[in-house]
Structures
1.
Amino acid sequence: MVLRMCLTSGGQHDRGLHELQAALRANPNFALARALSGWVLSWTGRFDDAVVETQTALSLSPADTFLSLYEFCHGSALLAARRFKKALPCIRDAIVSFPGFPGHYALLISCCGHLGLWQEAEVLLAQRNLLAGPPLTVSLARTQLLGFEQGLVLVEGLIRAGVPES
């Protein structure tokens, strides 16, 4: 599993996805592999497929110890597919499940930006910046998401939410 994520994080999306699909052929009920497969699918621009995979992960293991990760992956896929109203509660749930992970906040701030929830985005940005440094900026998000298709939607939402450029 770690190899698969290293491959995809390193930009080798097709190879990483191939490894995840091999794991799913061996065990189609492997919820963690489904969630991560959906996440990688969203990185490659296959947003509808990503939503299906991540929803399957949530359905397979609704009370799993990895629930926060499944919610994060599903919310990310929904955000990338521009289903902002559906993404919002899912990403909020991910933060409730694992409030100390700053990555959840960027997704929720972006989603709030797309939905015009400016005050909530402002509060979330302050909370996120207290959790981890450097502060979240649009330029930081662009740099971290270079080569990932869903990054365009995320950055667009951050801009709409009023996140500073640098």
Note: The first helix runs from residue 2 to 9.
2.
Amino acid sequence: MRYQLPITKPKYLVTAVILLITILSVFYNYSLSNKLKELRKNLATNENERLIGVEYERQRQEDTYNFDENLIVIYNRVPKTGSTSFVNLAYDLCKKNHFHVLHINITGNMHVLSLANQLDFVRNITSWKQMKPALYHGHMAYLDFSKFGMPAKPLYINLIRKPLDRLVSYYYFLRYGDNYRPNLVRRKAGDKITFDECVEQQLADCDPRLMWLQIPFFCGHASECWEAGNTWALAQAKRNLVQEYFLVGFTEQMEDFVSLLEVSLPRFFRGSLDHYGTSNRSHLRQTTSKIAPNKETVEKIQGSDVWKMENELYEFAAQQFYFMQKKMTLPGKNILQSYMYEKVRPK
């Protein structure tokens, strides 16, 4: 009698196949999970190494970045505030102190740059490595570098003058010139009308609105800055003076301004105070035949809104300057303020 193998029922075969597939699937998923964990671990390690490398490079660049040698100072000089005397001091010092001085010459003596020139200017002086460190000067309004996405801002400095004194000086300058270029014939040469007579006759050359210049120079390139009597412009000029200017001095005490700069920015102004006092640079450009206005003229001018606003900016600038000057030394002592780090943790 022939032996016959038992026939496996189909349902047991199906169960066995399913069980085998399940075992293989679990094994595959387990293996895949381990591989993914290992991959994530490697990625995390690589990312940590990358971040460490980035931080190291940042610190290396920070440690090696020479702030003094990349310094840019902009002196957006207001006309008739003693700026020629100060600029020539910088030209005298630039070779000795190893920095560049460059004049910003805008077409037609305009004080505002076109939008295209604004962008070109900020890019140019930011990237012009061969000219760093540098002091740029010119009769132009304040320009905000952060508006154009620049990685760093220059240091702004300026001088400000009593508004009526500045207007009177400019009035006679147009008629008689100055001792800086005595042979140059000025636009109003031959006009013998005094400033007092001009005010009495209400002529255009002594219009109080002509005093509206220091506010827009500190306010900037916005259209409102150049609207005489604009209260927003005055507020913006004050904000910029405090937040965007490294130091603002005033014409009547230029020697103190030079002294403060020498202490604060020795990279440019080392030796400036001695040079200023001994080189006849303190009154380099003086207007010829200037006649002080009489009491009635002064009262008329000071009654105008423009004078009041310009004078408010002047007084505000003087207040800031005196505050900075006072904080340079210890109270009651002629000792410069200093600082140090301590209690540094962890050790």
Note: The first helix runs from residue 10 to 64.
3.
Amino acid sequence: MTREPSRRLAALDGLRGVAALIVVFYHLSLVARPFLSADQWAWLTRSPLKLLTAGTESVLVFFVLSGLVVALPALRDGFGWLGYYGGRMLRLYLPVWASLALVAVSIALLPRDPASVTPDSWLLRGNAETISWPQLFQEASLWKASYDVNNVLWSLRWELVFSLALPLFIIAARALQRTWVFAASLAVVATVTGRLVDVDALVYLPVFFLGTLMAVRLPELRAAVGAWPWWGRLGLGVASSALLIASWLARPLEGAISADLLWGLAGPGAAGLVIVAIASPTAERVLSSPFPAWLGRVSFSLYLVQLPVIGTLAFALGDANWPIIVAAAIPGSLLLAWLFHKGVEVPSHRLAKLVARKLNQLSSTESTLPAGSVNQQMTGPHEGSAGRAMPRSSVNSPS
């Protein structure tokens, strides 16, 4: 079945960029937390201000974006699956490996002294002070459950799982597109259930599925929500934002079943924000403006390099100097993200496109060859169609 062409939706890039910056703010808030009073922390996290530091919830926005943007090209007839897998793996792994190398170099040049930061703080619990080769290789595989060298890679693990299972997501979304409300409700129930029983696959993979459901119904979705009056789209944005941080606004229910139930609503909240981004002219103008658009271009790089910057500064200066760390880490992360984007991410994307094109040419050539001539074609140069370019996807992410 042929779907609406997978044209670039500029507002989604801007949304991805804003979400990546919020993740930076979130990690900086964790650095500052030991030095904030209970009232200050409550104002920061149990009020609408939490939207500025909704780090884990912003990752759910990445997951919805991936479910949508990665699936869109695959809905077209003749999609090159061989090229998709080859290119997609390169797009994910090469920047990840470079980010791990960056952390390793930073720790080698500026050793991290545990005594320089608050005991039992997030800095000690979530960031490696030393690195071993086995640890580095385990995190580089993206199959590890938890990550200390570059803590954000936990989400890339789920991006990898989704990317590998994309055909299953598309089959399910197409089969359920006529009953999409029921399907979306099942996804939300699965997320809540996963939170209650502590099964991460149930928590996160249904959020990707919400994005894939959007992909199979994108024209209808944009037309329907786009026809709403402005106040309807504004209401959707406000409601989605509230759902995204509902578990924080409802505290002190923390630790109760009701808190887990509310956290499960963050997935549909993230999906609602994506819908607003693609259907609201106002949101599109804001998210397509220069700074969000630039953030969108470097979002994957920003996501990967911000913790090396924050961790290095915190261990070097001591987390008691958190105002200086915040003041230095934000511009430092943005600058390093731009350099990483130019030096690592863009070349990785070019290589991924080249590999995808070659693999699709190989697949196309083999499908037209008579039996017995395949081996000869596989060992020589291949001519054929230009192949299908890899879609720009969000990893996690923001890739």
Note: Residues 10-367 form one domain.
4.
Amino acid sequence: MDTPDLPSVTPPASEPHLPDVPVPGAESVFVHTRGIRLHVAVRGPRNAPLVLFIHGFGGGCFDWRELIPALGDAPFRLAAVDMRGYGRSDKTPRGYDLTTAASDMCGTIRALGHAEATVVGHGEGGLVGWTMAAHEPRRVSSLVTVASAHPLVLARTMLTRPFSQWSRLRDSLYAQLPRLPERTLTADDAKAVAVSFRRQVAPGFRTTPLCRVHEDLRRTAMLVDKVAHLSCEYRRWTVRSHLRREGSVFDRTFPARTLAPVLCLDGSMDPAYDARIAEAGAARGGPGSRVKLLYGVGHFPHIEDAPTVAAVLREWLGVDAPDTLAD
């Protein structure tokens, strides 16, 4: 796998420093929405249709640094955001639930000057994308989830078949403990973050220089002040909300099917991959929703094999003729 222009990122023992240019060829901008400031890496013409990329747990806009350039000359404005509590975005004391996160992202679409966007969400970012499509359907023209799931499908699966999602459930349950998860995430220059990333990618990717680059990027990102605590807050809400009335109220906000079509993209070597979850998610999407399985990659297909994911996205967005979506 070619790895041109890879940065040398070594997590420092003192003050962590995120890359000045987290996505090659992109401009770092700050948008103001709903009383907070969010950092976004933006590439492409202002008047082109918007594609909004949302990272998952422990990530940042840098998660998309291989995929966005791989999309080449696609006629879109590509924007990768640092979610609330991550990267250069504001670290507020509250607001780490899916409803607020979805509102943040819909506000980001508007703050960038667009009425709607194709939303691409990885992991927890996919949960946010589903919530956006349910709560503010006019903002989501289509949704692509990467190694993610519909929130209600995932919750039901964890209750009825917990061991099929043990890797996800284990991390979510561990995050419920006070203080210990944060200490684990930041100990030894965030070594646990690198171990977790390596565990979730395909074995063949673990020996590549690109794997080391992203291990270091994620370690550095986790060492930014407050990120370890606030990233755990998202997971705490996901579990605790189902023990309160808030969870049942949230569940009832989801329609049987979204208006937007949904592409559920997964890696065959993802420890959390379950075909039943992907199929149940696609069944809750709008007309044209479908499932796509990529072979030989794990939980981070957009990092492990960006050219293939870019080809799938280009077809989904209507840039290229149908081919790569066919199984």
Note: Residues 1-14 have pLDDT under 50 and may be disordered.
